[in-house]
Amino acid sequence: MSIQSDIEARLAEREPEVEVLLAELQGSGTVRLFIDHPEGVTLALCEQVTHQLPEVRERYALEVSSPGTQRPLTKPDHFRRFLGRRAKVRTRGAHEGRRSFTGELVGASEAEVTIAADTGVVAIPYAEIHRSNLMED
What we know:
The protein is α+β, with helices and mostly antiparallel strands. The protein folds into 2 domains: 3-65, GMP Synthetase, Chain A, domain 3 (2-Layer Sandwich), CATH 3.30.300; 76-134, SH3 type barrels. The protein is 24% helix and 43% strand. It is built from 4 helices and 8 strands, in the order αββααβαβββββ. It has helices spanning 3-14, 43-51, 54-59, 76-81; strands at residues 19-26, 30-36, 61-65, 86-95, 98-108, 112-117, 120-125, 129-134. It is globular and about 45 Å long.
């Protein structure tokens, strides 16, 4: 089970209103966790989530934060929610000769995201995405 799946499962029981946007292992000792909540993310909520994950804190240093303006996009629903906005998508390997695409999100199926990049419209399967996030307008 990935660190993200593990944290999502724990928070689904303990803090069901909190959405895990991205959980990533930094180096060997820190987990960076980006969360969202329908009423916004406050410092108090970040502290509350930190305390809800003692199993994670036993193994790693834990950083919990709001998504900020360059919100991570990791799931089809995230891409669909922000259609029409600018995003940067980085791929695991070369895709159409490039590894990074920046442009308007114009489509998001269950299998891939479509982005209108400077070189044209490109469809990128989610499995090929290494990292993606919104760009400030």
